[in-house]
Specification:
Blueprint (H helix, E strand, L loop, with lengths): L13 H52 L4
Length: about 70
Amino acid sequence: MKWPWRRRHSGRSPGQAAADRALHRARADRQEAEDRQPAVQETAETLRRYREENHFAQLFRASIEGRRA
């Protein structure tokens, strides 16, 4: 006699398959982010440099106009 509560699963369950797909997507997304990291750092450094230049320009302009920045 076969017991109905003792079924054997052949392969992965739907939940396990979904978890495996989610893990695969997460790993792919992480690799993509790591691949973009040098470009992101370069852009951040450029923006930081522009911000500093703008700040010094504002200070210089303020000193010429005789006011505080």
